[in-house]
Write a structure and sequence with these properties.
The complex is a heterodimer of chains A (233) and B (285). Chain A is built from 9 helices and no strands. With 233 residues, chain A is an all-alpha fold. In chain A, helix 3 packs across helix 5 and helix 5 packs across helix 7. The radius of gyration of chain A is 22 Å and the shape is elongated. With 285 residues, chain B is of the alpha/beta class. Chain B has 9 helices and 10 strands. In chain B, the strands form 2 sheets. Chain B has a 6-stranded mixed sheet, with helices on both faces. The longest helix of chain B is centred in the middle third of the chain and has 31 residues. Classes of the chains: A mainly alpha (233), B alpha/beta (285). At the A-B interface, helix 6 and helix 7 of A face helix 2, strand 6, helix 3 and helix 5 of B. Bound molecules: adenosine-5'-triphosphate and magnesium ion. Magnesium ion binds next to helix 1 of chain B. The site of magnesium ion has 3 residues of chain B, from helix 1.
Amino acid sequence: MQKKWELFVKSFITNEGYTKVIAGLENTVQIAFFGFLIGVALGTVVAIIKAFSKRSKAVKAISLIGDAYVAFFRGTPIVVQLLIAYYVIAPLFGVRINALLVGILTFGLNSGAYVSEIMRSGILSVDVGQMEAGRSLGLSFSATMRKIVLPQALKNSLPALGNELIAITKETSVAGFITVLDLTEAFKQIGSANYEFIIPYLMLALVYLVIVLIMTLFIKLLERRLRRSDKRN
Amino acid sequence: MINVINLTKNFGSLKVIDNVSTTIEAGEKVVIVGPSGSGKSTFLRCLNLLEDPNGGSIIFEGVDLCDLKVDINEHRRKMGMVFQHFNLFNNLTVKKNIMLAPVMIGCRKLRSLKRKRALIAFVNLFRKNKLELPEIKETRASIKEEAERNAMRLLKRIGLEEKANVYPSTLSGGQKQRIAIIRALAMNPKVMLFDEPTSALDPEMVGEVLQLIREVADEGMTMVIVTHEMNFAREVGTRIIFMNEGRIEEENTPEEFFQNPKSPRLKEFLSKVLSPSSRPKEQTV
Ligand SMILES: Nc1ncnc2c1ncn2[C@@H]1O[C@H](COP(=O)(O)OP(=O)(O)OP(=O)(O)O)[C@@H](O)[C@H]1O
Ligand SMILES: [Mg+2]
């Protein structure tokens, strides 16, 4: 064990493995964070379209596209989506491909499919009377959506959205498939340096665990803040 | 003020409103009564197009609201609506509930005025005799301030100014409904539509809500009220409409309506709702 530890310290510090870990952490956080943001934006739009597809034929048609999108991204593994995005679709757009960007976009699209389901049930959980009250005051559909329905839907969906953020963070560990240096890839390379993986992989698990715990704490705080409007005072 | 012409509304194959025509004049207090499922709510909700009619038209101040080119939001501002379940915005404090629509609509007007002004200023660059720039007196801050002042004035009127900064979940049903009413009044509507405003209330709170509606009626507001409170209908209404199976079966002044019902359906309905056994349901204070 002593020897394993020394090997790890050697490749982590002496051979500057930590720079890889820092870069990997940066990439992991970027993919998770921006992917999640894209996912929430995209998922919310899809959810609004789906929740109100009964209003008109045109919206219904768009909502079918939304269905296909959700079915594809929920029905295929994220690794396959990454491979297709990086090796099939991205080359169509240019010679120099930024793997990190492809990763962020793919995770964003993937997450959007899940978030759309979360937000759809969030929107449906808001009483239709809220929308009707807004419209009866002369507010537009989009104004009522923005000021009244979405804030309540978001609050109702917060626990599920928190789970999604945690899930996407852990899933970024497959970003190495498209040459992104993420946390997993970084520790893998440190281990490969002298074929000693036990400590690097245990450390890797620890880093993910800490990230997820920090996120959980942050989500709890946010939920408490948003619950203010339910409190009796 | 509101001209309803051959209004028809179906839900799927169910005909809920069947070719209804009537005219609501300014200052009238029209009360709609009728058995459950007869289409009262649907009729009321067609008036401000919360339900899209399948046929006929609603002419409000000379404008056909069913015309798709009409900006319905603009006309809805002049038609306040009060719902059975209050529908206060749960995510906003009481004061913000009242201020939201006036502020958003005020700011929207301000933006379009500024855009117009910028356009004129631009055109002026190329003109010798300059066009006059429209004066903009309001700012976002002044719109907010004015809306807040108005909200507090209305809250004071119903004696709830100390509730300004609490969320609706902390209020009683009667308080919620009275706030819903002044929220509608804050838009200075020309007509108020009430859909069973007291049906979801505990009996001891019915009185305070009816009292507020009565006051608004006395100020001359045009009103259309769906209610099961027969005493209130008789007292406040200037015309009572009996709806049955999606049609106006009978309409008359309150005196005639209750003393001289003509159609057998109405007689049957009145004997039910006015029978001693159902008395407790229609107490009005
Ligand atoms: N959104 C809807 N979809 C389908 N059917 C509906 C819808 N809204 C109302 N209906 C039906 O239309 C009919 C009339 O409903 P409406 O709510 O207008 O009756 P009402 O006279 O207001 O009754 P109540 O006194 O119970 O409120 C009912 O049979 C109801 O089931
Ligand atoms: Mg009804």
